Structures are given as structure tokens and as C-alpha cells.
């Protein structure tokens, strides 16, 4: 019998707990796994754990996470309805941006998460995750202001996925004018999720009639 999604995710977590593939393991208090509904059709991807996340071992629990939660609820999405993870699972010292080698070492875990959970929509938050996903697909990162304008249809692991990229909520903490832009983008994400749901119901209906 094949393992369930939950089995596969817990096996992945165990490997991440023991992981020493890059020097970030030396600084971590806790590795930070993805969290949320494993049956969600939507996956958000951030950059790396910060201080609070490292202390608690959960993603987006600090001030950037609170801002994200607020905007998600404003547009009608709840944290419980989504799955949220990071590009790099251990906290870089002083919250610096992870180095290229650290991202490369950790990326296979993120790609496994995507394969296991098979989301229909991926939302990257900030440059690091947006660039990491694109580089996996052989695509160039053209900067957040360009990338956020388009919904990119990608194929990963033989599955079609809609890729959207927006600002990192931490950027909106420093530049409040980005908050409105982030809200607009997440509003679009909610609409796309609804459309995708309708499409799926239509396909099921056609299948059974
Ligand atoms: N920023 C991130 O990118 N991820 C977190 O988990 C918290 C802050
Ligand atoms: Fe392993 Fe990723 Fe942590 Fe590096 S950041 S030690 S690759 S889990």
C-alpha cells in the first residue's frame, strides 16, 4: 500500500530534523517545516525562518506572519485553508538573506513538499522563493514588479500549477505602501482559487454525467 500524504510529510520532517546539508544547521534552535492543511490546493512559500520561527519551530509566527494573517483574512483566506512553508528550513544568522549554496542545499526539500502536496496554486512571497522556483524550471527572475503582474502556468512533476509571485510581507512592514499591493495580489489569489474550484467541480460533473 502506498504511503499517505501525511506519512510522506512526516517522513520528510524527520529528514529535515536531522539535516546537516548546509552550515545553517549549526545556528538553528529548531528547523521550521511547512504547516497548514496538507490537502490545500494552495501553497505559500516564504524565504527562511526568522527569530520567532526558529524559537517556536513554526513558519510565519512573527510580525511578518501576523501581517500576512491579517491580509489573508481581509481577502477571505484563512491560515488553516492554506499550506505555508519556506525556501530554507533553518534560520540564517541575524536574519540575513540565505546564500545561494544554502538555498541550493535546501531546495530539494521544498520540491519534495510540492510533489507530495501537489498544490494547484503556488504563491511565492519575495524574491528568494520566486527566484528559487523559477530557477528550478529554467526560468529567469525578472524582478518582483514584473513577475507579480502575471499568473504563470507551470508544469512540475507532470502536474499543472499556477504560479503567482508577490511581495514578502516583511517588505510591507518596512514600506507600508506595499501592504495595499500585497492585499491586491492576495485578493487575486483568492479569485483564482475560486475559479480553480469551479473548474474542478465542472470537470467532476462532466465525468459523472
Ligand atoms: N519570513 C519568512 O520568509 N518565513 C518565515 O517563516 C517568517 C518570516
Ligand atoms: Fe538542511 Fe535546509 Fe537546514 Fe541547510 S537550511 S541544514 S539544507 S534543512
Q: How does this structure look, described?
A:
The protein has 209 residues and is of the alpha/beta class. The protein has a single domain (5-208), classed as 3-Layer(aba) Sandwich (Uracil-DNA Glycosylase, subunit E), CATH 3.40.470. Helix content is 49%, strand content 14%. The chain is built from eight helices and six strands, in the order H-E-E-H-H-E-H-E-H-H-E-E-H-H. It has helices spanning 5-18, 51-56, 63-74, 100-117, 127-136, 144-147, 169-174, 177-208; strands at residues 35-36, 42-46, 83-86, 121-125, 152-156, 159-166. The protein has a six-stranded mixed sheet. The protein starts with a helix and ends with a helix.
Properties at a glance:
globular, binds iron/sulfur cluster, alpha/beta, Uracil-DNA Glycosylase, subunit E, binds uracil, 209 residues
Outline:
With 209 residues, the chain is of the alpha/beta class. The protein is 49% helix and 14% strand. It contains eight helices and six strands; from the N terminus they run H-E-E-H-H-E-H-E-H-H-E-E-H-H.
Amino acid at each position: 500500500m502506498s504511503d499517505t500524504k501525511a506519512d510522506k510529510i512526516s517522513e520528510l520532517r524527520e529528514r529535515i530534523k536531522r539535516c546537516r546539508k548546509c552550515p545553517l544547521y549549526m545556528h538553528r534552535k529548531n528547523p521550521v517545516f511547512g504547516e497548514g492543511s496538507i490537502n490545500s490546493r494552495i501553497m505559500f512559500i516564504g524565504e527562511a525562518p526568522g527569530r520567532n520561527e526558529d524559537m517556536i519551530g513554526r513558519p510565519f509566527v512573527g510580525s511578518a506572519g501576523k501581517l500576512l494573517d491579517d491580509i489573508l483574512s481581509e481577502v477571505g483566506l484563512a491560515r488553516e485553508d492554506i499550506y505555508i512553508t519556506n525556501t530554507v528550513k533553518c534560520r540564517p544568522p541575524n536574519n540575513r538573506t540565505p546564500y545561494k549554496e544554502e538555498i541550493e542545499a535546501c531546495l530539494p526539500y521544498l520540491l519534495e513538499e510540492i510533489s507530495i502536496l501537489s498544490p494547484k496554486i503556488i504563491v511565492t512571497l519575495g524574491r528568494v522563493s520566486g527566484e528559487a522556483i523559477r530557477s528550478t524550471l529554467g526560468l529567469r527572475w525578472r524582478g518582483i514588479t514584473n513577475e507579480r503582474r502575471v499568473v504563470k502556468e507551470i508544469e512540475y512533476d507532470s502536474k499543472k500549477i499556477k504560479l503567482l509571485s508577490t511581495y514578502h510581507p516583511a517588505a510591507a512592514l518596512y514600506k507600508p505602501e506595499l501592504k495595499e499591493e500585497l492585499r491586491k495580489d492576495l485578493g487575486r489569489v483568492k479569485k483564482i482559487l475560486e475559479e480553480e474550484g469551479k473548474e474542478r467541480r465542472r470537470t467532476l460533473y462532466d465525468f459523472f454525467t
